[in-house]
Automatic annotation (TrEMBL), chain A:
<feature type="repeat" description="WD">
    <location>
        <begin position="249"/>
        <end position="281"/>
    </location>
</feature>
<feature type="domain" description="EIPR1-like beta-propeller">
    <location>
        <begin position="5"/>
        <end position="281"/>
    </location>
</feature>
<dbReference type="InterPro" id="IPR059104">
    <property type="entry name" value="Beta-prop_EIPR1-like"/>
</dbReference>
<dbReference type="Pfam" id="PF23609">
    <property type="entry name" value="Beta-prop_EIPR1"/>
</dbReference>
<comment type="similarity">
    <text>Belongs to the WD repeat EIPR1 family.</text>
</comment>
<dbReference type="InterPro" id="IPR015943">
    <property type="entry name" value="WD40/YVTN_repeat-like_dom_sf"/>
</dbReference>
<dbReference type="InterPro" id="IPR001680">
    <property type="entry name" value="WD40_rpt"/>
</dbReference>
<protein>
    <submittedName>
        <fullName>WD repeat-containing protein DWA2</fullName>
    </submittedName>
</protein>
<dbReference type="GO" id="GO:0016567">
    <property type="term" value="P:protein ubiquitination"/>
</dbReference>
TrEMBL record, chain B:
<feature type="region of interest" description="Disordered">
    <location>
        <begin position="614"/>
        <end position="641"/>
    </location>
</feature>
<dbReference type="GO" id="GO:0006869">
    <property type="term" value="P:lipid transport"/>
</dbReference>
<dbReference type="GO" id="GO:0015031">
    <property type="term" value="P:protein transport"/>
</dbReference>
<keyword id="KW-0813">Transport</keyword>
<dbReference type="GO" id="GO:0005829">
    <property type="term" value="C:cytosol"/>
</dbReference>
<dbReference type="GO" id="GO:0007030">
    <property type="term" value="P:Golgi organization"/>
</dbReference>
<dbReference type="Pfam" id="PF08700">
    <property type="entry name" value="VPS51_Exo84_N"/>
</dbReference>
<dbReference type="InterPro" id="IPR014812">
    <property type="entry name" value="Vps51"/>
</dbReference>
<comment type="similarity">
    <text>Belongs to the VPS51 family.</text>
</comment>
């Protein structure tokens, strides 16, 4: 795998970076947004487009961003809108931005700030859009609270509809919005994963005593989530049965930082890790394994390696990884040194999927 | 006649005469005579006087030519004499014939006169006979009535005799009972029975009752005779026959007796079970001979009870097999099992002598195979049980009385597995080598079972290991935090033990077992061709190899997680952006080093030293790396110019490009050094990642710089891959540098001073943490 880099590299980011997002609302182009993380320099957001030939990455737009970006999400229904979470020294903030019309000139026009999510009492961690199209709500998660916002992008206003505090003992670090249910969201904190009902703002279920780093909903099957944690690596759960996980993969040598379900191919999972690698996994179809704890399942299943491929041609930890919605067989990854690599997983899709 | 007369020259003349006469009387015989004479006729041609075609002219001419005068004269005389003779003969014949004719005529005449008188006599005779017949008829009719009367009288007499017999019957029966001549009694009674049936209600009532009473006594006696053991079997069999003749319900009796026998067997079984519990030498010496005798007796007494007896015997033996199986459950040695099997085999053989039925033999073969299989499986599961017990005791937090609990755990479990398997094989070999006929047939099966058993054993062992490693995971649900930390420590050690044990199994146990199986348990050819051998050592080598690696990785990740928790606390609690000036090395390094010491202590108990420093190449590689990057690092440290920060980022970026990519995460090996350095590397990487998540002020940066600089030296003692550690430490500093708003490093003298202060403090108070080497 060494040196077998098949991906297209984009080296345009001048600084360290953590965040990359797929612009899924753009039906014409496969493009990604990446934001840099530089404490002292002027940060940038790059709109990177995969050329129609699919052989190079073009910088479609470069916008200055006032602060270092810790989270970046593209709006699922308007390709020109995205959200960022940023810090500058001691202050934290989150804003919704609109990319101005470009009219050919790509050279760093100013981003238009639609509105910022005020009323942030503590460190904001991330902003969530509902992943399936038009929805006038947003979720922001900070260390202690979860906020549900009602947004109006035409009037450029946003106001908090409801909020729930998680309590002093935990500090939230991220979350994921259920694509099957607008009222369900999963959040992760130091030691547990909680699912919330947004109508009542109450916890529905939780998986306790595990330090999760990331979570993602299966876009194809409701109630199925994948999580990344330090102890077991990558695990797949049915949130209706939080006691037992359905499946597990060893994860990365060091931390598994991010985990993403492929939007199209069921069971295809991408993980990014601080061991400078991106791993591609194939989960056996849920249900074939039932909910038997893995220790009891037979040998054949255990020996069947779920790891399809490990991309490890990175110089530094990989924090950002994003599938393309438009072309679900490609993904972009962003390592800390600011390199964006777009890879295609087509060659792994040809492997027979049916159980042997 | 003419032929018989030999042609002697003397009789020549008479013969010729006779011939002539014969031809005269009978032409046919003459023809034959002529035929027979043809030889002489040929000898005597035409001139021969005796030939039929005699030609006198030719004869004459021949004679005239041949003879002289004398001869002729002589012939003449001779011939004249012959003629004369012939004439007289002829005369004689004629005379004789005539005489005969005369006498015949006389005889006929006499016959005629005799026959005329006879007819009259015959008539007389007929008359006499008819008169005799009529007279006899008269006599007959006159005697008929009397004869009938006599016959009636005779019948009456017979009847009277029978009645007499019946009246005598009770007395006679009594006599028979006294003499124990039951057969006679039964014969009498059955003889009288039809009469009783016909007239029992009227004339012979008393008699019938009396004799029935007597017969009841007979029946009773017969019954007691039947059930008494002392009687000879034949007598008992006779009794049964007699009872049957009396229409007594023998079947009931039979079933009662057999039930009694069954009870007896059951009682014996229960007794033997109790005995078995107390003693351990083989199955109780059953009084099987007695049983077989009884069975034999019953077989003769009740010839139709065979199937029932067979069933009884089967049940009996099934119960005995049950005893063995219970014993196996309790765990017994192969010798003991053999003893029991031998006993039961003998018993069965004794039984088969009297009950010549294939089912019993078939049954015992089946049962024995079941027992052997159960024994083998039980042995394997016992061993498994033993091993998991061992782990349970070792994983339980005991008082730290032992110097190196992990070492002991490893050694004892190693021993348990190898020794256990070997002992088991020895036991099985006993089964295999025994020449008990029963087991000889089962040898192939036993071999196969042993192989299957090992297959099962290793599979289970692997699963058990896996579950053990799972249960060893620290689960935060446990009550108190102290307890948690404690049990966790013991259990992470357990995972390491499991890793090493897996390697041991892969490299020592499986080859040994395979060898043993090859020498004495190979070729269980029953299914070998269909499914391949039951035990596949290669598969398990692979399995345990991967399991070992898994456990090793698990151990490493568990250990680095523990450290990661320390680091996390360290980096998430303070507000780094408002950090105060560093006064001393942060105490988390103590915790870190303590944790590493603990790790080292565990690893030393279980793993071996690396034979030599394996990373020679990467060492040299690394040293060039560090020598290349060190001046830059110094340069960076010395530089206090904030304006050049931006170019520094580019510089380090460029430097990275030129540096060979550092292989931080190399394969973990089963050596102390490799495991410890992997953990160190992982925790330094975590350190770097934690730093990257913070935003620091100058003092925060300096604090991290100080901590890292301090760690540099102590860490050297743990790792074999110094280059990688240095690289990672440098990366931590870099990360801090990047995340610092105002990255001005501590001045070197202050840095040295603080580090030395910390060192002195540690040497003074916490010398025990330093590895003794």
């Amino acid at each position: 795998m060494q040196g077998g880099s098949t991906g297209i590299v984009y080296g345009g980011l001048k600084y360290q970076a953590r965040c990359i997002a797929d612009v899924c609302a753009d039906p014409d182009n496969t493009s990604f947004l990446a934001g840099t993380l530089s404490l002292k320099e002027e940060n940038e957001v790059h709109l990177i487009r995969v050329s129609p030939s699919g052989t190079e990455l073009v910088c479609e737009g470069l916008f200055y961003h006032p602060n270092e970006i810790w989270d970046l999400k593209s709006c699922p229904f308007d390709s020109r809108i995205f959200s960022t979470v940023f810090t500058s020294g001691e202050t934290y903030g989150a804003s919704i931005w609109e990319i101005p019309e470009l009219y050919g000139q790509s050279n760093s026009p100013q981003l238009e700030k639609l509105f910022s999510l005020q009323e942030l009492s503590s460190k904001i961690k991330c902003v969530l859009w509902w992943p399936r199209g038009k929805h006038d709500k947003l979720i922001s998660i900070d260390e202690g609270n979860i906020f549900l916002w009602s947004i109006d992008s035409s009037n450029k206003t946003a106001k908090v509809i409801s909020q729930e505090s998680i309590g002093m003992l935990h500090s939230l670090s991220g979350g994921s919005w259920d694509p099957h249910d607008r009222n369900a969201v999963a959040t992760i904190c130091d030691s547990s994963l909680q699912c919330w009902d947004l109508r009542t703002m109450k916890k529905t279920t939780s998986i306790d005593n595990i330090h999760f780093r990331d979570v993602d909903y299966n876009p194809k099957m409701q109630h199925i989530i994948v999580t990344a944690d330090d102890e077991f690596g990558i695990r797949i759960w049915d949130i209706r049965k939080p006691k037992f996980h359905l499946d597990e993969f060893p994860g990365h040598v060091h931390w598994t930082w991010a985990v993403r379900y492929n939007p199209e191919y069921d069971g295809l999972i991408l993980t990014a890790g601080t061991d400078s690698a991106v791993n591609l996994w194939l989960a056996s179809p849920a249900g074939s394994n039932d909910s038997i704890p893995e220790s009891l399942s037979d040998y054949a299943a255990r020996q069947n390696d779920p790891l399809l491929h490990s991309y490890n041609d990175y110089e530094d930890s990989v924090y950002g990884v994003a599938w393309s919605c438009r072309e679900p067989s490609i993904f972009a990854s962003l390592s800390y040194d600011g390199r964006v690599v777009v890879e295609s997983v087509k060659s792994f899709l040809q492997t027979p999927k049916e159980p042997f | 006649m003419a032929l018989e007369s030999a042609p002697s020259p003397l009789d020549e003349k008479t013969k010729r005469t006779r011939d002539l006469l014969a031809s005269f009387y009978n032409a046919a015989s003459g023809a034959t005579a002529g035929g027979s004479n043809s030889s002489s006729g040929r000898a005597l041609p035409v001139d021969s006087i005796n030939s039929p075609n005699f030609d006198p002219d030719v004869y004459m001419s021949v004679i005239v030519q041949k003879e002289n005068l004398d001869g002729l004269l002589h012939n003449h005389v001779e011939m004249a004499a012959e003629i004369k003779n012939l004439d007289t003969d002829l005369q004689m014949l004629v005379y004789e014939n005539y005489n005969k004719f005369i006498s015949v005529t006389d005889t006929i005449k006499r016959m005629k006169s005799n026959i005329i008188g006879m007819e009259e006599n015959m008539k007389q005779l007929l008359d006499k006979i008819t008169s005799v017949q009529s007279k006899s008829d008269i006599v007959n009719t006159s005697l008929f009535e009397k004869r009938e009367h006599i016959e009636k009288l005779h019948q009456t007499r017979n009847l009277l005799r029978k009645v007499q017999f019946i009246y005598d019957l009770p007395a006679r029966l009594g006599k028979c009972i006294k003499a124990e001549a039951y057969a006679d009694a039964v014969r009498y009674f059955t003889g009288a029975k039809p009469i009783f049936e016909a007239y029992g209600d009227s004339s012979f009532q008393d008699c019938k009752r009396a004799s029935e009473e007597a017969i009841d006594i007979v029946i009773h006696n017969l019954q007691s005779k039947l059930s008494s053991e002392s009687e000879p079997i034949e007598a008992r069999a006779d009794a049964v026959v007699l009872l049957k003749k009396l229409n007594f319900p023998v079947d009931n009796l039979k079933s009662k007796l057999l039930e009694k026998f069954e009870d007896c067997l059951l009682k014996f079984h229960n007794e033997s079970k109790e005995i078995e519990l107390s003693e351990s030498d083989g199955l109780p010496k059953a009084s099987i001979r007695e049983f077989s005798k009884t069975v034999h007796a019953y077989l003769i007494i009740f010839p139709d009870s065979e199937s029932r007896l067979i069933r009884l015997a089967q049940d009996f033996f099934i119960k005995r097999y049950g005893i063995i199986q219970q014993q196996i459950k309790k765990g017994i040695s192969a010798a003991h099992l053999l003893l029991m099997l031998r006993d039961i085999w003998e018993d069965v053989n004794i039984m088969v002598e009297v009950l010549p039925e294939a089912t019993l033999l078939f049954q015992i073969v089946e049962a024995a195979s079941g027992i052997c299989k159960q024994y083998i499986l039980a042995a394997f599961s016992n061993l498994l049980q033993e091993i998991s017990e061992l782990f349970k005791t070792h994983s339980r937090p005991t008082e730290q009385s032992e110097e190196s609990p992990l070492h002991i755990a490893l050694e004892s479990s190693k021993k348990a597995i190898l020794q256990g398997s070997m002992n088991m094989l020895v036991e099985f070999r006993q089964l295999l080598d025994d020449n008990l006929e029963l087991l000889v047939n089962l040898r192939d099966l036993i071999r196969e079972w042993v192989q299957e058993g090992f297959q099962y054993f290793f599979q289970k062992l692997d699963q058990n290991f896996f579950i053990l490693s799972r249960s060893g995971r620290p689960s935060t649900t446990e009550s108190s935090l102290n307890d948690l930390v404690y049990t966790e420590r013991v259990r992470t050690g357990l995972v390491l033990v499991l890793a090493q044990l897996s390697v041991y199994i892969e490299q020592v146990v499986i080859p040994r077992v395979t060898e043993e199986i090859a020498t004495s348990f190979s070729g269980g050819g029953v299914r070998a061709y269909d499914h391949g051998p039951a035990f596949v050592p290669g598969e398990f080598c692979r399995l345990f190899h991967s399991a070992g690696e898994k456990f090793l990785h698990l151990y490493v990740s568990m250990k680095s997680q523990n450290i990661s928790i320390i680091l996390k606390k360290r980096f998430t609690t303070p507000i780094w952006i408002k950090h105060k000036e560093p006064r001393e090395v942060n105490m988390f390094v103590d915790l870190l080093l303590q944790e590493l010491d603990g790790l080292l202590a565990e690893v030393r108990q279980v793993l071996q030293h690396g034979l030599l420093r394996r990373h020679h190449r990467s060492d040299s590689n690394g040293s060039t790396n560090s020598s290349r990057s060190n001046p830059m690092h110094e340069d960076k440290l010395g530089r206090s110019n904030t304006q050049r920060v931006k170019s520094q980022f580019l510089e380090s970026h460029l430097a990275k490009l030129f540096e060979q990519k550092m292989e931080i995460f190399t394969k973990v090996e089963y050596t102390q050094e490799s495991v410890v350095s992997t953990v160190v590397k992982l925790c330094l990487k975590s350190l770097q990642e934690f730093v990257r998540l913070q935003t620091l002020n100058r003092s925060g940066y300096q604090q991290i710089q100080l901590d890292v600089e301090f760690l540099k030296n102590p860490l050297k003692q743990y790792v074999d891959d110094e280059a990688a550690t240095n690289f990672l430490l440098k990366e931590v500093i870099n990360a801090a540098h990047e995340r610092c708003l105002d990255p001005i490093p501590l001045e070197l003298p202050i840095l040295d001073k603080l580090i030395n202060a910390k060192l002195n403090k540690r040497q003074g108070s916490e010398i025990k943490f330093l590895p003794s080497n």
